[in-house]
Fold this sequence. Notes:
Blueprint lengths: L4 E4 L7 H6 L7 H15 L5 E4 L8 H8 L5 E5 L11 H5 L3 E3 L1
Parallel strand pairs: 1-2, 2-3, 3-4
Amino acid sequence: MKKNIFMIADTHIGHDNIIEYENRPFKNSLEMDKTIVTNWNKIVSKEDIVYHLGDFALCGTERYMEVFNRLNGKIHLIKGNHDQQSHTKLIERMGFVSEKK
């Protein structure tokens, strides 16, 4: 099976304010997150490689993990300003294949 490589950035999972800031067409972040997961998994297979170029999420640990675990692909994270939860080691626990600052 051929592995595809994808790049994405600024998903801002769980970030209610990003809807207003960026004029995203959602009522709330739950609706936005559901749409992101659905659209992502329509295109990305479990074996594909995804480079996330920062600002994956801005939410609590439970929501972060719930959404992350539903996404297909082997995800590499290049950290953005909203991916700096180093004091809780959240990023290290998530299961990204790799992460870079």
